[in-house]
Design a protein that fits this description.
mainly alpha; two-stranded parallel ribbon; 2 strands; 53% helix
Length: 138
Amino acid sequence: SFAFGYYHRQEDYPKVNILISDNAPEYKLIGNRQGLCWVHDARNYNKITPFVKYHQQLVEDFQRTYWKFYKKLLDYKDKPDKELKHKIETNFDKWFIPNTGYFDLGKQIKRTLKNKNELLTINCGYLSCTLCILCRDL
């Protein structure tokens, strides 16, 4: 806690406005806002270990959708555009539907939905998890 106190009192370096992280609680003490890293969120889906073939297919299909959505975020990063921004915001609610027929997958999707604002928060520079997207106006 001494380090966090010093960080906020020092004036040699700019303070972090938005920190993209893995949602560890101590990071809430660093930036004014905290965004969440998609790669860290995706790790929770990798931990799901279904035994039933049908559930395995549900998880695989969802992960393909997840990374397709993430690709849209990267496209937006490369070329910000209001229409794509609207599409991203709309598709988030369409693609992250917890009623999958597989409890563990639905539970994780609910967690992702709960973090929607933080996952769609971006960082314009300063300090960030190197695997997170950095863009503007999302």
